[in-house]
Design brief:
Blueprint lengths: L1 E11 L3 E5 L2 E14 L2 E10 L1 H8 L6 E13 L2 E13 L35
Antiparallel strand pairs: 1-3, 1-5, 2-3, 3-4, 5-6
């Protein structure tokens, strides 16, 4: 399930990296403060992969961002842990590029004088 949330970047934790059997990996966690009713709340998100870590590096503490993420849970020794894994970060208020409307010249509306004259002949097919 993909979710989205907007908030203020509060803190970026250090980048963690290493090498596993599958190769090198990198992750960075960050704290996002978001409105929750009359109060604010905080959540810790994870940027997995070098590309997501580099994407997060574009933003500074205090920036308003929109985060798209997946919620995942896993069990370890009888306890459950939640992980908010991001897949997209965008600045709040970023609008997609607008396409310019073609510049059509407005033609004047037809008037009564523009109507064809009545010939008096019936031209209905039935």
């Amino acid at each position: 399930m993909a979710l989205e949330i907007e908030g203020t970047l509060q803190q970026k934790l250090p980048v963690a990296s290493g090498t596993s059997a599958r190769g090198p990996w990198a992750k960075q966690e960050f704290i996002l403060e978001y409105p929750d009713g009359n109060f604010s709340a905080k959540a810790c998100f994870t940027a997995w992969g070098q590309d997501k870590v580099q994407e997060l590096a574009k933003y500074q503490v205090g920036d308003r961002i929109k985060v798209s993420f997946n919620l995942k849970s896993r069990e370890y020794n009888g306890r459950w842990y939640n992980d908010l894994q991001i897949w997209k970060i965008a600045p709040v208020g970023a609008q997609p590029a607008k396409k310019e409307a073609p510049d059509f010249q407005q033609a004047p509306a037809p008037s009564f004088e523009d109507m064809p004259a009545d010939s008096g002949a019936e031209d209905l097919p039935f």
